[in-house]
Amino acid sequence: MEMMRVPRIMHNTSVKFCMTGQTVGFVPTMGALHEGHISLVRRSKQENDVTVVSIFVNPTQFGPSEDFERYPRDIEGDTEKLKKEEVDIIFVPEISSIYPEGFLTNVKVKKISEKLCGAFRPGHFSGVATVVTKLLNIVKPTRAYFGLKDFQQYVIIRKLVKDLNMEVEIVGCPIVREQDGLAMSSRNAYLDKSQREAAPVVNRCLTEASELIKSGIINVYYIKEFMHEKLLKEPAVSVIDYAGVYDPDTLDELSEIKGDTLIAVAVRIGETRLIDNMLVESRENPDPDSGNLKNKVSKKKEI
Ligand code: AMP
């Protein structure tokens, strides 16, 4: 496994792979790697000749009062994990090489960036869209792998790649969970013992809401109310940013359940913000070729 720090060297290396007909899979991360990240790496290894993993804690996607400084960093542990997975290249750029002096550009995907998490983290998704655009331009992958844990991020990246005619296939990968259902996240490390014990309420809330939808309940207000009640019953939940039922393509809050449905939650447990989501397949729309986002995700190939 080779470690690269300089964007130009990373770019030239990747172009050489492409010129010799090799496919390049790319997994962008912020490090502190867990099994969720590793699942993306394994998928890339399965589907490509070469796998590149980037580790970059991107300052522009953190708000001024957010956790950029204390975000977990473990480059040695991450390097060991990626070596074990036989990753080909680990790309670890310096902040100054991604945002050199005089950097002025900002990529913003309108509308869908303002929904859900975007409403609570102003500027977050333009930070994400900007850095992902840069990383895709540097690494020039055949395919790039994103977790559906960050569903909104996945929808935004698909849109920006389509809108900007970028030649890369965006692959959405299933959420990896702890045994008790908590979605794996680098931020779970912030939780103390009692908060960690309380955290699976998020997944239980989604699972029970999805069961209600599958049982035929189409009243979104009932589902939303159920979700809020379930979360508020857990004293460790200090704030609910959102919990409800959304269109998986537009991320608009639904007024009735018709087709495939995204149920999503963002809460704070103490100071720690946790997000999770589930796609609920429509009972009336089981056709695997119906073209909705849910089915595109499960069919692996995108766009
Ligand atoms: P991060 O390091 O948090 O920026 O995440 C890097 C990538 O890993 C993103 O595409 C995330 O969606 C994905 N990811 C993080 N946690 C999980 C998880 N529990 N399951 C699947 N993918 C994940």
Overview of this protein structure:
The chain is α/β, with parallel strands linked by helices and 303 residues long. It has two domains: 2-173, HUPs (Rossmann fold, 3-Layer(aba) Sandwich); 191-302, Pantoate-beta-alanine ligase, C-terminal domain (Pantoate--beta-alanine Ligase, Chain: A,domain 2, 2-Layer Sandwich). 37% of the residues lie in helices and 18% in strands. The protein has helices at 7-19, 35-47, 75-84, 95-98, 117-120, 124-139, 151-163, 193-198, 201-214, 220-232, 293-298; strands at residues 2-4, 24-29, 50-55, 89-91, 143-147, 169-173, 237-246, 261-269, 272-280. The chain has a six-stranded parallel β-sheet with strand order 1-4-3-2-5-6, with helices on both faces. Helix 6 packs across helix 7. The longest helix is centred in the middle third of the chain and has 16 residues, at 124-139. The radius of gyration is 19 Å and the shape is globular. The site of adenosine monophosphate has 17 residues, from helix 2 and strand 5.
* Unreliable stretches covering 5 or more consecutive residues: 285-292, 298-303
Order of SSEs: EHEHEHEHHHEHEHHHEEEH
The CATH homologous superfamily of the largest domain is named HUPs
CATH level 1 name of the largest domain: Alpha Beta
CATH architecture designation of the largest domain: 3-Layer(aba) Sandwich
Give the strand order of the largest sheet, numbering strands 1, 2, ... along the chain. Answer: 1-4-3-2-5-6
